Amino acid sequence: MKIKKIFWITLGCIGLALGAAGTVVPVLPTVPFLLLAVIGFGKGSERLHNWFTGTKLYKSNLESYVKKQGMTRSTKIKVMTIITFLMALGFFIMFRKELYIPCAVLAAIWISHIIYFLFGIKNYSPEKNSQNWGTSESRH
After folding, report:
1. How buried is residue 75: exposed, middle or buried, by Cβ count under 10 Å (0-12/13-18/19+)?
2. What percent of the chain has pLDDT over 90?
3. What pTM was computed for the model?
4. For the chain, is the Cβ count within 10 Å smaller at the N or the C terminus?
5. Nearest to 43 by CA among 78, 7, 18, 92
6. Taking a C-beta distance cutoff of 8 angstroms, is the pair 37, 16 a contact?
7. Distance, CA of 32 to CA of 20 (rounded, Å)
8. From the CA atom positions of the chain, what is the Rg in Å?
9. Which segment of 14-23, 36-45, 60-69, 70-79 scores lowest on mean pLDDT?
10. Smallest Cα–Cα separation from 5: which of 34, 45, 37, 35?
11. Helix (H, G, I), strand (E, B), or coil: what is residue 123?
């Protein structure tokens, strides 16, 4: 039982470190690594999970998504840009080696990601939601 906790906490720490680095390094994605941190801390340590969900890093990047409110437009654009860049890099490397079927698979995955981020995840606007607080619109 203790080895499982250590595994999940270690995974959470790795996700946190890579996610924090992703806020500064343009090519490194932030959101997937922070999701890994939430999962790792959630399964490994309630104390670490509570600490992490209280940080600014979590609140500005994941909180609205985890609460199923959506993502801010800027976060969605950032994620889609990084996904597009990394997949294009892989696509061109495989295309130069004449690996056409993997290129087609990668293109299909890229299109699926873009469609999901455009239509599957709601746009979240913290300003709009705070303005509607207490009005009849927020109760519907």
Report:
1. buried
2. 18
3. 0.55
4. N
5. 7
6. yes
7. 11
8. 18
9. 60-69
10. 45
11. strand
